Amino acid sequence: VGDPAEANALGEVLGRRRGARLPIGSVKTNIGHLEAASGLAGLLKAQLALEKRLLPPSLHFHTPNPDIAFDDLNIEVVTAPRELQDTGTPLYVGVNSFGFGGANAHAVLRQPAPHETGRRTVPSRVTPLVVSAQSPEALRRLAVDWRDRLEGAETAETARLTNAAAYTRDRLDHRLVALGQSSEEI
User: In this structure, what are the phi and psi dihedrals at residue 107, rounded to the nearest 5 degrees?
Assistant: First the structure.
């Protein structure tokens, strides 16, 4: 169930918008599942792919899953090392991780642009405004309440409120996240 759903989502959002096929792969074929550490392994694989400009193959891939429409989704499994060509723009790599307990995550890593090397200043910390509710309607009402509550708030007050929402509220089924340092950005 998981692989077709994941492949369909990637193909719908990214694959069909490209000229060339979207390369996909799994680190599990290289080192096993690793259970709780599998997401970290995926991040390391992605980081190394960007650093080395080389996509490693998914080992032991022979028969495509018949529940995945590879051609229609414009995706393909990387079966041999593939060099990433310099296009003049930074490369991006996505990592999916699905935990046994139902936690899902997708991270996007970007290759630094050449002008970004060397010392950099660290931007101020931004705490996400995490809002969740039991239904889509309740989520919309809560989002409006948050907008009204943050309107005109000073940056310090915005940070205090978003921090409290991010770390002290229950995570319900319907969620939204907004980022920003000021109430206007959020």
Answer: -115, 145
pTM above the 0.85 mark? Answer: no
- Asked if 138 and 108 sit in the same domain, the reply is no
Q: Looking at residue 62, which CATH number applies to its domain?
A: 3.40.47.10
- Residue-number span of the structural domain to which 80 is assigned: 2-116
Task: Give the H or E element holding residue 109.
Answer: strand 104-110
Identify whether 152 is part of a domain: yes
What sign has the CA pseudo-torsion 121, 124, 128, 129? Answer: negative
> Packing angle between helix 136-150 and helix 155-168, nearest 10 degrees?
150
pLDDT tens digits in sequence order for the chain, 186 residues long: 568 988 999 999 999 889 999 999 988 888 888 877 888 899 999 999 999 999 999 999 999 999 999 999 999 999 999 999 888 888 999 998 877 777 788 899 998 876 655 554 444 667 788 899 999 999 999 999 999 999 988 888 888 888 888 888 888 889 988 888 788 888
CB atoms within 10 A of CB 46: 20
